[in-house]
Every structure is written in C-alpha cells, then in structure tokens.
Write the structure tokens for this entry.
Amino acid sequence: MSETEEKIVEDESLKPDRKEVFGWMLYDFANTSFSVIIVTALYSVYLKDMANSLTGIPNFGDYIWGLAGSITMLIIALTSPILGAIADYSGKKKAFVWFYTFLCIIFTALLYFVTPSLNIFGIPAYIWGAILFIIANIGFQGALPFYNAWLPEISTPENTGKISGWGFAFGYVGAMISVIIAMIITIMFPASTYGDFGVRLAFVSSALFFLVFGVPAIMLLKSRPPKKRPEEEGKSYVSIGFARVRRSFRLMKKFPSLPKFLLAYFLFSDAITTVIYFAAIFATTTLAYNTMEVLILFVVTQFAAIPGAFTFGYIADHIGTKKTLIITLMIWIVVCIGGYLSYDKMTFFYVAMLAGVGMGSSQSTARAMFSGYIPEEKKSEMFGFYALTGKFAAILGPFVFGVVSLLAGQRMAILTLTIFFVLAMLILIPVKAPEDIGKIEIHLEDDLPVVS
C-alpha cells in the first residue's frame, strides 16, 4: 500500500461516526452526576449546614460555599485558555480529559470522609470539605473545554445545534438517574437512624456513576493529529500556549460578533451558574424543603430539562441559534420573577420545572452558537476562551447573590438575576449569528480572519 493510500485510510478512520457521537453524548450523561449531586442538590446543603453548625454564624455556610465555587472558577479561568492551546498543539486533548475526569472522580469519592468530627492539623471539617470540593470541581470544570472542543469535529454547521442539544439531553437523563439513585440510598439509610451516612454514601454513588459511564465515553472519542505552525517547532508548550492566546485575542478584536456574544454569554452564564449553586440552598433555607423533597425537586427539574435540550436543539437548527438563545433567556426572566414570587413549595416546584427547560435549552444553544463561530484549527484554544468567560462569570455570580442576600434576603437576590438576563438579551439582539455570516477560517500561514 502506498503512502498516499495509507494517508487516505488514516483520514477515513478519523472521520466522525455514530460511535464517536454517542461517546461524546455519553460523557455528558456521566459527568452531570457530579453537577447535580455535588454542586446542586446535596453537597452544597451538606457543607453549608456543617459550616453553620460548627461556627454558629448564620449564613456563614453560604459564604464558604460561594467562596469554594469562586476559587475553582478562578483557577479554571486562568488555566483553560493556555491548556487548550497546548492541547491543540500537542494533540493530547484526550489526555487532558482523562486526567481531569479521574481527578473529579477520586476527590468526589473522598467527600464521603467529610464529617463534623474531621479535624486534621487543627483545620475544621468545613474547610477540608471546601478544599476537597474545589479539587473535585477543578476536575469537573477542567475537562469541559477539551470535551466541548470535540463538537466541531463530530458535527456539521447543519446539525451542530441538534448534536449539542442531544448531548445536554443525555446529560439531564444521567442527572435524573443519579438523583434517583441518591433517593434510593437516602431511603435505605434514613437520617433518623443512620445520621449523615446515607447522604455521604450518595456522594460516593456520584463518583461511581461518573466512573462507570465516563470511561467508555472517553474511549469512544478519537484523537486527531494537531495542526502545527512551523514557527512553534522547538518551543515549550507554555510559550506556545501564551502565544496562541495572544493570537486569539487579536482574532476576536477583528471579528466583532464574537466578543459581543462572549459578553452576553458572560452575563447569562453568570446568572445560570448562580441558580445552580444556590437552588437547593434557597429551597431548604427559605421554603423549608427537606432532603427528600430537594431530591424529588431535582428529579423533576432534570426531567423537564431533557425535552428542553432536545426541542431547542432542533429549533436552533431551523430558526437559528441567536433567535433560539434569546427565547431561552426570556424563559429565564420568567423563572427569576417566579422564584421571587414563590411563597410555597408547590409554586417553586413549577418554577423549578421551567428552570429545567431553560437550563437545557440555553446551555446547549449557546454551545452550538459559539461552535459556529470558531475556526476549525483553533478548537480547544477558542473553547478555552469560552470556558474563560463562563468561569469568570461564575466568580462574580455567587458573590453578587451572597451580598444581595445578606443585605435584602434571598428573594431579592433571585430577582436581581433578572438584570443579567435582560442585559444579555440587549447585547445579543444586534449580534450577527454564525449561520448568517459563515465560519471564520484561520489560515496557518497568517492570523487574518477570512469570513466564508
């Protein structure tokens, strides 16, 4: 077989197929067990209650939880663009996903040992609980820009919205199953008899769920050869990473729609992340939900998110990602106002269902819209900036919520989030959608964008 024929075979083997698309969606299915059990439903309340109990300071747990989330996002925000650029050059994008995934799984399992009696080197349990969560969350968040960078590789401009929506839908199915497993565990080991054992065992179930489904998902993804620049030969990964980041900044300045989209994404991602971090805390503190009621609430929320991600993925492919995204932001505005007006559990129950629809649709549509902008050979690097925007937003959101909650209560804090969604809509309205202007092509011999 000639070298040309071998190259053709190699190229054919790297084309996306149904197995790889399924693997990409399966990873969404696997990793949402962490986001729903640890970040949203159980561990947030567990750590908050422990901090309040050990310190005797009202709402001190809210501060610790928000601080832990902010520290995580700051670390990811500062490292993801560089690591994304390094992954593009080295072709080791898959290796980064493996590393961050196992980091998340191991430290999520270690949360089982966070009990009020934990005291090592004189450091109280809630500090250790925050440290272990930060490391686990770095693993979860760190894998996302590399995982997201597969989307342009496994899709076309015509079906990006659909595949992105299916990915989020699979994720919400995984989240729903994870919550059901946690419910079964807490029923088998009720707090009245076993104390916090059942809840801590649910943390372990989250790690095992991620392990069982995350490993085969990553194995199905294909490693593709990097596109290198001649001037980068012989340079260190760090210097290459910083150089590529600088080029990305120059690129965004030359392409006006992308910075505006990222600014809008910063605002609504800020608000959505804050809802995710504080939903269970609001339910338990303001509306007196117990653990089982919180789990039921999030089963229903995930169930509502599934058709949201599916439906709006198809809508995005038919009417465009920008119009679809604006519709989802309108849904979020209604959610915030509804949360402010919720004075009983049933009302908040319906608001949470609508939030599930908004969550599945807005995140999948935003990911698809961003994917439509980015050039093929800078996938990981540009998704690093996507992560950078979202992670910096996540630093601000919990802080703003905490301050407003402290000064005016949790209801007013929720209402304040409406401002973020309205501003995001106003910024998006004049932005040109990627399907209207075509994707940028960055030629390796120069850095000038060409709109095709």
In short: The beta strands are 440-442, 449-451. The longest helix spans residues 60-90.
